[in-house]
Design a protein that fits this description.
Number of domains: 1
Order of helices and strands: HHHHEEEEEHEH
Shape: globular
Largest sheet: 6 strands, antiparallel
Radius of gyration: 22 Å
Strand content: 25-35%
Structural class: alpha+beta
Helix content: 25-40%
Distance between the termini: 67 Å
Number of helices: 6
Low-confidence stretches: 9-25
Number of strands: 6
């Protein structure tokens, strides 16, 4: 009986070692590709909320502008996603501004997912973006 139990345990261990977990794909997490690429209707609200965490001091932003979200490949290794481009001048310190910065906001299933601010990646995403004033971003407070 002990020998049989040992044999069963060895087989179970071997089979368990062969299986492994794959992280869920976007499609598994969010549904079909159409659902993943739902237009982000509240993109400005999502971006302003994310900027509070992205910037050390989100108050006093100057020259803020944003493009309408457009379906683009978010990087060479990722499928198409809605991307909105931002331009802004945020504070570097209490009285000094860092200079104009451009970032791309990527959306999945109609909601903000991440900022892409690596210059090479962002340039491709924001090439030919048509910017519009974004006063909501300029009105952010520190808290």
């Amino acid at each position: 009986m002990i020998r049989r139990f040992g044999m069963i345990a060895a087989i179970a261990f071997t089979l368990g070692a062969c299986s492994h977990q794959h992280p869920p794909s976007d499609a598994a997490a969010y549904g079909s590709e159409e659902q993943i690429n739902t237009y982000p209707a509240n993109y400005k609200t999502d971006i302003t909320a994310a900027m509070r965490a992205y910037l050390n001091d989100p108050s006093g932003i100057r020259d803020a502008s944003v493009s309408e979200p457009v379906l683009k490949p978010s990087s060479s290794s990722m499928p198409e996603r809605y991307v909105a481009c931002l331009r802004f001048n945020a504070k570097k310190s209490a009285t000094v501004y860092a200079g104009t910065k451009e970032v791309a906001a990527v959306f999945v299933a109609g909601r903000f997912d991440q900022f892409v601010d690596a210059p090479k990646e962002e340039q491709g995403l924001c090439a030919n973006a048509a910017y519009n004033p974004f006063p909501e971003l300029e009105k952010l407070s520190r808290y």
